Amino acid sequence: MLKLDAVTVRFGGLTAVNAVSLDMPAAGILGLVGPNGAGKTTLFNAISGLVKPGTGAIRFAGNDISRWPQYRRARAGLGRTFQIPQPLAQLTVRENLLVAQRFGAGAVDRQRLDEILALVNLLAKADCDAATALSLSELKALEVAKALATDPQLLLLDEVLAGMESESKRAFRGMLQQVHERFRVGLLIIEHDIETISALCPRVVVLNFGEVIADGAPGQVFRDPRVIESYTGQATA
Fold first, then answer.
1. Measured between alpha carbons, how far is residue 172 from residues 40, 140, 142, 146, 187 in Å?
2. Angstrom distance (rounded) from CA 83 to CA 143
């Protein structure tokens, strides 16, 4: 479904993403990890259209989307969340989803919105002010719900568990698994929590200094000496 071919993103003299290639099948789950500054969010921004790669190609569902605008990528089936929740001010939870659905899907399906709200445990707060009435975990759930409202084939999830306590993380992890199974949507997940990545993702790709340094099953990847060194700064014996 998603194929990156030697994608490179530069900001002036800084190479944030360097010739990254990867393939992700339809309805799969892939974890994207690496130390701070590794290029993970920049890669997400390139896939979703916030930045354009200098070289390389991004293909989605058989199309080269490297130069497509954001709205066209959304309507082709790419949804994403942001690390810092961004509820639309002065709108209710349900209205936030309505705006996202009109933008991404091009039409309104209120029954689907209620189904999404129920799945992310926000149906009881559907008519509450999104910016003021939600807890952190609920704001994160709203990010996922807005992305789901666009009717995606693939969700890009940028640290949706950041800042949560352990119990909230476990509950949120379960909700993401339900989202994957109920809507048959692929998940590409940036996350620092190794337990979450290991539980959700059968495959993990590790970035460091904008380059892929490991790709495989979590148990294999997190024992890789290059990965350990990228996090600790110390080479293993």
1. 21, 9, 12, 16, 14
2. 9
For residue 228, the surrounding DSSP H or E stretch is: helix 225-232
- The residues pairing with 158 across neighbouring beta strands, listed in sequence order, are 190
**Distance between CA atoms of 220 and 212, rounded to whole angstroms?**
15
For the purposes of burial, counting CB atoms within 10 Å of the CB of 188, is it exposed (0-12), middle (13-18) or buried (19 or more)?
Answer: buried
pLDDT tens-place string over residues 105-156: 888 999 999 999 999 999 999 999 999 999 999 999 999 999 999 999 999 9
Beta-carbon neighbour count of residue 22 at 10 Å?
A: 17
CA proximity to 40, closest of 80, 71, 74: 80
Instruction: Answer yes or no: are the C-beta atoms of 20 and 4 closer than 8 Å.
Output: yes
Among 172, 6, 1, 23, which residue's Cα sits nearest to residue 78? 1
Ranges of beta strands (E only) in the chain are 2-11, 14-24, 29-33, 55-60, 63-64, 78-80, 154-158, 186-190, 203-208, 211-216
pLDDT tens digit sequence for 176-214: 999 999 999 999 999 988 899 999 999 999 999 999 999
Amino acid at 129: D
pTM of the entire structure? 0.92
